[in-house]
Amino acid sequence: xxxxxxxxxxxxxxxxxxxxxxxxxxxxxxxxxxxxxxxxxxxxxxxxxxxxxxxxxxxxxxxxxxxxxxxxxxxxxxxxxxxxxxxxxxxxxxxxxxxxxxxxxxxxxxxxxxxxxxxxxxxxxxxxxxxxxxxxxxxxxxx
Amino acid sequence: xxxxxxxxxxxxxxxxxxxxxxxxxxxxxxxxxxxxxxxxxxxxxxxxxxxxxxxxxxxxxxxxxxxxxxxxxxxxxxxxxxxxxxxxxxxxxxxxxxxxxxxxxxxxxxxxxxxxxxxxxxxxxxxxxxxxxxxxxxxxxxxxxxxxxxxxxxxxxxxxxxxxxxxxxxxxxxxxxxxxxxxxxxxxxxxxxxxxxxxxxxxxxxxxxxxxxxxxxxxxxxxxxxxxxxxxxxxxxxxxxxxxxxxxxxxxxxxxxxxxxxxxxxxxxxxxxxxxxxxxxxxxxxxxxxxxxxxxxxxxxxxxxxxxxxxxxxxxxxxxxxxxxxxxxxxxxxxxxx
Lengths: 143, 338
What we know:
The structure holds 2 protein chains of 2 kinds.
Chain A: H1 4-19, H2 21-31, E1 36-40, E2 43-50, E3 53-57, E4 66-69, H3 72-79, H4 85-90, E5 95-98, H5 100-117, H6 121-136
Parallel strand pairs in A: 1-4
Antiparallel strand pairs in A: 1-2, 2-3, 4-5
Helix pairs in contact in A: 1-2, 1-6, 2-5, 3-6
Chain B: E1 4-6, H1 12-25, E2 32-41, E3 45-56, E4 59-70, E5 74-82, E6 84-87, E7 91-94, E8 97-101, E9 105-112, E10 117-125, E11 130-137, E12 140-158, E13 161-177, E14 186-195, E15 198-206, E16 213-222, E17 225-231, E18 235-240, E19 250-251, E20 269-276, E21 279-296, E22 303-319, E23 322-335
Parallel strand pairs in B: 19-21
Antiparallel strand pairs in B: 1-11, 2-3, 2-13, 3-4, 4-5, 6-7, 7-8, 8-9, 9-10, 10-12, 11-12, 12-13, 14-15, 14-23, 15-16, 16-17, 18-20, 20-21, 21-22, 22-23
């Protein structure tokens, strides 16, 4: 199967850097030197900041300051306002692991991501793609 | 607001179209915004549609939202961000919503399958437009054209059922100019469906902190005739309490991730009294529901929140020797900073 989540993330970041560059830069600054390992629907990849942009890269398997496990249906529920992030974390539908300052930084990245996404017409199309992809994955497949 | 020009002669739609076409012909280059609003009020429901178009250095884009409050389902809504297109001189369309001019007004189509919303409504206008030219708003200029006396015919459907609409009171306005979201600006605006034949519109232009007021106005139409125009100190507005109903839904829903607090910043009750000579009007508004629309700021990476509140209103007073008294429903919109 093609790496759907990784492709969605890559496309979303590309759209955001192109259509809302201030939000893209703010995300990169907030993430700083940290590496985020993302684990979703049997895909694993790294998010990191390079040249003032967030990039999606292969995970070489080394250490990462943050690990996020997020099934696509949980992400879609957040995008659609069906669930609060805190509730999703409490219920272990989204799992975030890292030191507190790194988690705080990741939250800031998410805030700039949302601010960028609402300024990007491409991101609203990508949200529809994410909904379609989520329907193809059985719920809670990673928990 | 610098000036208000009611136009009272017959033949609303063609004159309205000519006015807007002429108004937009001389618009300045650079940043530009247009917003179209439609409010339709039923006995147990209220529909609000917004369609916008904006031009900036990065090109032209549009947005739209629809909110429908019903007794059975509370508030259901949808919003879109993307391309927009003009339909004739006055119409706009984006994905999901189309407002197309007709010989007597507009046809509003709404198609939001994910939110289970559909609507097909004809809006027929009975009065000439009221125009406010060139009011300052932040560092920009804001022009406002309102058609408050209209009737809607057609139907809408939500996930809770189908509703036939026959002659429901409706309001339409269009705003255009070059104001910038995020600047030191705010407003309150209200529309009350006709009571004893009288339609009421209230507007206040404010700063974000609601400490400075540039304009305050209460307008009353009886049928298609503007019979009341109360301004400035003739209008007193008092807010009491805080709306404590169900959490306000946010649009776009992803704004919940910003975690700006779950409560809407809307008063529970608003009292408006207006007096000019022998004319007097008193409105008691009780807020019954709230939804919040987020608009990306032009000035930075934040959002301006437009709080849309449904209300029940008790109205009493006397205009031109005719008493007015009764209950009605409407919409109160608040834009302000934290």
